[in-house]
Amino acid sequence: MQFAGSHILSVTQFERADVETIFSVADRMEPYAHRRRVTKVLDGAILGSMFFEPSTRTRVSFGSAFNLLGGEVRETTGFENSAIAKGESLYDTARVLSGYSDVIAMRHPAAGSVAEFAAASRVPVINGGDGANEHPSQALLDLYTIKKELAGRGRGIDGLRIAMVGDLRYGRTVHSLCKLLCLFDRVQVVLVSPQELRMPGEIVEDLRAAGHEALESEALEASIAHVDIVYSTRIQEERFSSQQEADLYRGRFRLNQTIYTEHCEPNTVIMHPLPRDSRETARELDDDLNDNPNLAIFRQTDNGVLVRMALFALVLDVADEVDAHARDVNWYTAGRFG
Amino acid sequence: MQFAGSHILSVTQFERADVETIFSVADRMEPYAHRRRVTKVLDGAILGSMFFEPSTRTRVSFGSAFNLLGGEVRETTGFENSAIAKGESLYDTARVLSGYSDVIAMRHPAAGSVAEFAAASRVPVINGGDGANEHPSQALLDLYTIKKELAGRGRGIDGLRIAMVGDLRYGRTVHSLCKLLCLFDRVQVVLVSPQELRMPGEIVEDLRAAGHEALESEALEASIAHVDIVYSTRIQEERFSSQQEADLYRGRFRLNQTIYTEHCEPNTVIMHPLPRDSRETARELDDDLNDNPNLAIFRQTDNGVLVRMALFALVLDVADEVDAHARDVNWYTAGRFG
Amino acid sequence: MQFAGSHILSVTQFERADVETIFSVADRMEPYAHRRRVTKVLDGAILGSMFFEPSTRTRVSFGSAFNLLGGEVRETTGFENSAIAKGESLYDTARVLSGYSDVIAMRHPAAGSVAEFAAASRVPVINGGDGANEHPSQALLDLYTIKKELAGRGRGIDGLRIAMVGDLRYGRTVHSLCKLLCLFDRVQVVLVSPQELRMPGEIVEDLRAAGHEALESEALEASIAHVDIVYSTRIQEERFSSQQEADLYRGRFRLNQTIYTEHCEPNTVIMHPLPRDSRETARELDDDLNDNPNLAIFRQTDNGVLVRMALFALVLDVADEVDAHARDVNWYTAGRFG
């Protein structure tokens, strides 16, 4: 695809080469995200961060990514007081707000709303999540993390062996990740979930149509025995009709260090889209994994900054100029990303 | 008036020459708002954006305008958690907050509150709306839009023919616009409203005292036949005692492309302070006007950025230095303001 | 202590030399806070402003301080929509959010929460208030104000005579100020409160163990007769079981210009952590003191910016480079800090 001036709305808009372009630019963002260098390539540019549904970490991640390229951020959070709530159309909202910034990152509770907004926007729009529908930067950061975690061991996305665990029915991140995996070769996916929360059939079919292996299972321990990645997910309790129904599934497929040691291959990478539940009966990943160097969950969120920097640089067409507007910095950084 | 260090509280503080100064500076802001150039003239300056009543677009417009001059923005939205709600006086709030920034843009639900705040502030305060009272930057952007829309056709504010349509009783924007028009010559104003929502008598008298024609009417179609501008407004439902009462008036004087074609002169400009209502029975301006090149409603909001940039530049006394701190930019801009 | 890379969590972490270092750096921040000069020493750095409990002025003060050093600010306010509310641990929240910024200023309603967060953070954390526990930058700005107010008259913190007045039981600021005073010599503290709202015994003992005089009193007028500073505080109504109980104490020990003139030594300085209550029956400091040049309450909040700039400069290890990245500015400043 042509990135300059384009909207980023769905993982389905990418071909393999596009994903590789994003990851290549993300790699080059590392010295800036790790604060060895500062760039001002987007000095004077404004991100409109329009979060009509709250999401602290996605919002801050987008905002920090834009700041790290030298740009400014104007934000809106919440919905109740918006003009949309007073009966304004998304068309009008988009026409107006797109006059205030150079690019927009938008989150909205209604599926399809971001695409509708983008159609009327005069600047590129990046989908930061539209309900149960899409959250492309999350899928990209997940796949980018897989690539980076495996790089040191001579393995890659082609030939990947991955177990996805938990609420595969409502978990938006695993749906999008599967769609991205369809762009690559020879992937083995083990889908571990309760019967009632199985991965939707059409996604399983997509995986198989792409030539991948897709196995479904209800047995955690056997399923994680021969994979490179265990991707655990939270029960999406807001999608259930009652707390009680969600509780039926919470805490199933709980991974801890003992199970990891007994069943996983050495250096199996553990991922999770976060937040993970810390309540005793609801945990997906136990705290005793926190010292496991293969727990990649915080490297995932760090990678999110890199991927979002790459998306901004690409849609604003400055990816090749980032280094030209840069300098080294010397403020205290010893603790960063430690 | 002397702009440097002054508060901008009311349209009544301006003489004609002041309005022309603001518009002249706004004109010079275009290359920056359209992103052909970036200026850092306010690099290091801080805007305190104090929105004790929410208003996404006004807040973001002020913030973006300040960013476009190179400054930073610190924001507050909402009232419930403010010290004012805990019993602090506006005097104290103003003394404290004005120590944190170089200029303040403030919105507050109570009429007169912004002026009270400004009296205690140690930095210039721009009124971003104080209840039913004043919203001077809105009136300025409306008049600036009129000037720009008519410029291409050899007409101007002097000699203007304008129809104001809708809720003229509670619509703050039309009140302020009329006050500004009193600074100019030979204006013809047609005031189209339900009987119950007529323009307040003292404003009609002001128009006439300024030598203008002011006609009142309940007939939309005849009233828009010989004007340069149709300025439509929303029913201010929050001012009515019930939803039912507001509904009586909603959707009256609805303009669509058919009425426009049959009744208006060619190139009659359509304006609206936004948001316009998109609900089927409540529309003031139909969606079929969206392709009409004379629909200026989004150029209005774009012009708001220019006018607010001009106000900031004037009160901080940097209007003549904007270009000296500027450079051209080359990030992707093809879609902007399209 | 070693400031670079350290958390600022409690006044108890400081020795006298540390406090003096902070004040010395704060002094050097004056030309920047007063807008005679602009520095970009933290150009490219990001402050994560995480206010899980709202506090407009503390939040804006931290943010402005960071902007004044050239850095950017990414903010979060409120708690309801946070991942913590969905069951995420503070450990996870800290690991994630500390990947988005170079330093964090955090406020949270639960005592101890900021320290728990800091233990997992990968960047320095400054405590912006954790419930009834600590708010070290407030205590520092109070002491810094005392130092500056007395400097012109050849007096200092050593040998200070101070009356603390009001709700000494629940008032976090006076507790912390007493702890800081224990680092200095020969202080006389008069503690004026209702019997039920006396200063906690262990703090009184700390003062005495430090060699200070600490007298308790219920008589305002005699207590303020021979002091350098009257430090008045608000009734912390949120700590009482009912509004009625809080009202019992509100408005006691009310200071006005008449009492000041009759009982205080000339030039006795009046301080208050703000907000002060402006409701007629609840005032601690009457409005007729507003013209008293010894009312230092707004100089206190101004000093807060200087102290927070100093803390940022120290933990990010740029205190000695601020001037090297600076230039003079010439935008309108006549009204600032007036």
From TrEMBL, chains A, B, C:
Keyword Transport carried by entry: no
One cellular component (GO) term of this entry: cytosol
InterPro entries reported for this sequence: Asp/Orn_carbamoyltranf_P-bd (IPR006132), Asp/Orn_carbamoylTrfase (IPR006130), Asp/Orn_carbamoylTrfase_sf (IPR036901), Asp_carbamoyltransf (IPR002082), Asp_carbamoyltransf_Asp/Orn-bd (IPR006131)
Chain residues that bind L-aspartate: 86, 172, 234
Residue ranges constituting the Aspartate/ornithine carbamoyltransferase Asp/Orn-binding domain according to the UniProt record: 158-314
Alphabetized Gene3D superfamilies for the sequence: Aspartate/ornithine carbamoyltransferase (3.40.50.1370)
GO BP field: 'de novo' pyrimidine nucleobase biosynthetic process; 'de novo' UMP biosynthetic process; amino acid metabolic process
Enzyme Commission code(s) on record: 2.1.3.2
Catalytic activity annotation: carbamoyl phosphate + L-aspartate = N-carbamoyl-L-aspartate + phosphate + H(+)
Binding residues annotated for carbamoyl phosphate, in chain numbering: 57-58, 107, 135, 138, 274-275
Record keyword Transferase present: yes
Pathway(s) of this molecule: Pyrimidine metabolism; UMP biosynthesis via de novo pathway; (S)-dihydroorotate from bicarbonate: step 2/3
GO terms of molecular function: amino acid binding; aspartate carbamoyltransferase activity
Domain of life from the UniProt record: Bacteria
Keywords of this entry: Pyrimidine biosynthesis, Transferase
Stretches assigned to the Aspartate/ornithine carbamoyltransferase carbamoyl-P binding domain: 7-147
Biological role: Catalyzes the condensation of carbamoyl phosphate and aspartate to form carbamoyl aspartate and inorganic phosphate, the committed step in the de novo pyrimidine nucleotide biosynthesis pathway.
Sequence similarity: Belongs to the aspartate/ornithine carbamoyltransferase superfamily. ATCase family.
Complex and partners: Heterododecamer (2C3:3R2) of six catalytic PyrB chains organized as two trimers (C3), and six regulatory PyrI chains organized as three dimers (R2).
Protein name listed in UniProt: Aspartate carbamoyltransferase
Species of the source: Parahaliea aestuarii
Name of the encoding gene: pyrB
